Amino acid sequence: MGVSIDKSHKQGNALLVLLLALLLVGALAASFYLSEDGRTHFILWFLATLAAIGVLGLFLLAIGALQISGRGARNDLTKMITDGSSDGLLVTDTESRAVYANAHYMALAGVTDGAPVRPIERLFTGASDVSEAVYRLVQAARERRTHMEEVRMAPALDGQAGVAWYRIRVRPLLRAGRHESLWTVTDVTQDRKGEEGAVQELQNAVNFLDHAPAGFFSSDPSGQIVYMNATLSGWLDYDIAQHLNGGLSLSQIAASGAALLDSAAGVAGQVKTEVIDIDLRKRNGQGLPVRLFHRVSYGHDGLPGPSRTIVLNRSQGEDISEGRAAEVRFARFFHNTPMAIATVNRDGRISQTNASFARLFGDTLKADEGERNVAAAVLEKDRAALMEALSAAAGGQSDVSPIDVTLAGGLRSARAFVTPVADKQSGDEAAILYLLETTEQRALQEQFTQAQKMQAVGQLAGGVAHDFNNVLTAIIGYSDLLLASHRPTDPSFQDIMQIKQNANRAASLVRQLLAFSRRQTLRPQLMQLNDSVSDVQMLLKRLLGEKVELDVRYGRDVWPIKADVNQFEQVVVNLAVNARDAMPGGGKLTMRTSNVSDTQSQAYNYKGLTPADYVLLEVEDSGTGMSPEVIEKIFEPFFTTKEVGKGTGLGLSMVFGIIKQSGGFIFCDSIIGKGTTFRIFLPRHLLTAEEMNAPKAEESKAPAQDLTGQGTILLVEDEEAVRAFGARALRSRGYTVLEAGSGVEALEQVEEHGDAIVMVVSDVVMPEMDGPTLFTELKKRGYNYRFVFASGYAEEAFKKNLPEAEQEAFMFLPKPYSLKQLVEAVKQVQG
Ligand code: ADP
Ligand code: MG
Question: Is the CB of 479 under 6 A from ligand 1?
Fold first, then answer.
């Protein structure tokens, strides 16, 4: 170790010492010129003065007012430490001159004896980043701040090759009223080199892992791949740098097998390793058969950490042991089948599962990972049957019949097959459970059953309605006759009016039933949805009242449709009334019309909606909404949630019937508390050339005012009451009426009266011979009578039974009819 320099103390003044010496010599010389006596006197005085000065000095020294300087006094502990410190220490004054430098600093600065000590800024020079750091240090020193920098010097200060790192610190000092700076220079080259080495080692490790002859990846519990080595990414053809950042997920690389690797909650502190043979999926979709060693450890909270998964490539050529080909093939079959397979023990505990099983039960069996039991996978009601089947199989029974189960959660269903385990080596595995998901089929079946039920109810309702129609025709008819024979001033007149009005109300109920059973008479005609909605708009406003806002949005260029205008209005009114009832506190009813193209219709995803061009009417309310259970039933006749006397439950049934009969579809979406939207899809009608040229809807002929007439009319009707009323009604208008209770009777009447008859009014459905048959029979015999057919059934239905060419020769009269309607029809046909 060299020596330090210390200029922290002022050197004595040589001139002052010389002067003092001269003074002493002068005084001595002067004493020779004095007398003996005077000399003694002088010397005494001189010595006394010196003694006084000495005592004074001792005093001053004692009270500390005087210090004796010198090297020896500063050779204390602190100085020893600083001088010998392994850091370079330098103290500079404000002028940047070295006041003190320890030996280490001198060595760093390469100061040889006598040479001036270079300050920091002259010592550390070179690269720009070094001078910048030094500049910051000097600046800090000037501002009397503490500051530290680390600089990299190449070559090192001592001139050795290679690089060296120095940490330089500056700290302000205040000594004896003077500002100075303390600089500390530490050589940190060794530390830095150590760090560099560690990084290098890590890189080597990663490199080893990256190019290991096995794949490796780690996935976090959310299914994201957090690491994948180069070998695996090479196999799967992923660019790690690109894909790991972009978020590669387990389901992307493991496809259907991802569910198998899904790490569920486990026992705290447990480490679980599974060996799984599956196919991974390459970037191009190809499969890569592999064996995975999948290890997951669980934290203290039982939650899984990231996986550590080793991937062995089992594809041909890469397989580690060729003899395993069969096993690989089996594993692929096992995991790629759509059937969920699991082996279970006698108590239903699951031991092995395939990918489909994991997928089917992924969520259900996750919750209780500790005890994975098939019993937990199905609903309570199916448990007993499943366990029974399992124990039968466990007992060796090979023909256990399959059972249908609903999976836990209640949304999905499956058919379960159970077979015994053949070889008894496989631990306590007792049976194999195969499950085929049947959710879709079930839904279809339920839909089908529902449709059948509606059909049956419809048939019943239709039958009842038909009989009712005859009764109502008689009641309405006789009331008409009575009304005709009473003056309005007559007290009975009002009563008869009441009877007729009530019969009419009953008739409108029957009409709804018939509409539902799709047996009513529709008169489809070309119509514009926008026109008919706008026609009822005023009526709707009145129906909805003040509290409900009506917003109608007409689509542009809405295609024409073919439907019964009156019936369609009934549809709109019914939906609006229901919406109003669902918004007792007020709200908003929005109606929208629009075109829905073939492709757009597919996007709706409604079951049963066949893709085609449609015109769509949406009716949306902001009302109470409905629960899924209610929605299921709304179209059923007599289903109502309204109080007795408020709802008939027929409104939507009728709507449903009319829409179906028009070839359309109706769907309902509803959210409780939010509101309900009904969507009606009506098939677009493509205009024929004829229709395009046809003049705008010709106004229906003004009804004939004079309803009296003459001539003989043959009235054929099996219901006596209806026939009697009809006969009286026609006679009262001046006609001669021949009555027949059946088709056969009618033929007899014709034999007898033949040419006198001008027209036949006939029921359609009659025993023995129905109306249309009578019509053709008479044709055969050469009688070309004009016909009025009366029926409660759909016009379309009976038209089919008549030859196309003849259809102009008759008129259709829907039942129940009033007196006026009957005579009008007769008058019209008579021409
Ligand atoms: P009704 O109106 O006589 O009850 P409907 O066949 O018209 O019979 O309707 C059947 C049931 O459907 C109603 O009772 C009601 O519960 C429900 N419903 C129909 N439309 C709506 C709607 N817009 N909002 C809420 N519920 C409705
Ligand atoms: Mg209703």
Answer: no
Alpha carbon distance 458, 452 (integer Å): 10
Alpha-carbon distance of 374 to 357, in angstroms, equals 11
Strand order in the sheet with 308-313: 225-228, 215-219, 308-313, 287-297, 271-281
Q: How confident is the model at residue 794 (pLDDT cuts 50, 70, 90)?
A: low
Instruction: Ligand 1 pocket test: pick from 544, 581, 648 the residue with the most ligand atoms within 8 Å of its Cβ.
Output: 581
- What Å distances lie between residue 93 and 141, 177, 178, 179, 181, CA to CA? 10, 12, 8, 7, 6
Helix segments in 150-257, DSSP class H = 189-210, 230-236, 240-245, 250-254
Q: Is the CB of 641 under 6 A from ligand 1?
A: yes
Could you give the CA distance from residue 706 to residue 828 in angstroms, rounded to a whole number? 11
Residue 647 alpha carbon, nearest atom of ligand 1: 3
Distance in Å, CA 220 to ligand 2 centroid: 55
Decide if pLDDT at 260 tops 50: yes
Which SS3 state, helix, strand or coil, does residue 545 take?
Answer: coil
pLDDT attached to residue 580: 93
Say yes or no: CB of residue 677 within 6 Å of ligand 1.
no
- Any atom of ligand 1 within 6 Å of the Cβ of 652: yes
**The model scores a pTM over 0.70:** no
Q: How far apart are CA 11 and CA 71, in angstroms?
A: 11
Q: How far apart are CA 351 and CA 337, in angstroms?
A: 18
CA atoms of 632 and 640, how far apart (whole Å): 12
Residue 652 CA to ligand 2 centre (angstroms) = 6
**3-state class (DSSP) for residue 151:** strand
How much is the average pLDDT of 784-809?
Answer: 71
- Tokens representing residue 138 in the block: 């000097």
Ligand 1 centroid–CA 729 distance in Å is 41
DSSP 8-state class, residue 338: S
DSSP string, 343-382: EEETT-BEEEE-HHHHHHHTTTTTTTGGG-BGGGGB-HHH
CA 761 to chain centre: 64
Cβ-proximal residues to 609 (8 Å cutoff; 6+ apart), any chain:
601, 665, 667, 681
The pLDDT, as a whole number, for residue 2 is 52
Q: Token pair of 265, please?
A: 């909650």
pLDDT for the residue numbered 321: 57
For residues 462-477, give the mean pLDDT.
84
β-partners of residue 281 are: 287
Q: Report the DSSP beta bridge partners of residue 679.
A: 618, 667
Residues recorded for the chain: 831
Residue 682, pLDDT score: 95
Residue 352's Cβ-count burial label (10 Å; 0-12, 13-18, 19+) is middle
CB-CB contact of 661 with 683 (8 Å): no
> CA-to-CA distance for 563 and 531, rounded, in angstroms?
13
Q: Please, which residues have CB within 8 angstroms of residue 404's CB and are 6 or more apart in sequence?
A: 382, 413, 414, 415, 416, 438
Condensed to tens digits (0 to 9), the pLDDT of residues 669-723 reads: 999 999 999 999 999 998 877 777 665 544 444 444 677 888 899 999 988 888 9
CA of 57 to the centre of ligand 2 (A): 124
Confidence of residue 323 (pLDDT cuts 50, 70, 90): low
CB-side neighbour CA atoms (13 Å) of 693: 2
pLDDT tens-digit series, residues 531-551: 888 888 888 888 888 899 999
Please tell me the distance from the alpha carbon of residue 488 to that of residue 477, in angstroms, as a whole number: 18
Q: If we measure between CA atoms, which residue out of 560, 474, 469 comes closest to residue 517?
A: 469
At 73 the pLDDT is: 46
What is the rounded CA–CA span in Å between residue 594 and residue 552?
A: 12
Alpha carbon distances (Å) from 332 to 276, 335, 355? 11, 5, 10
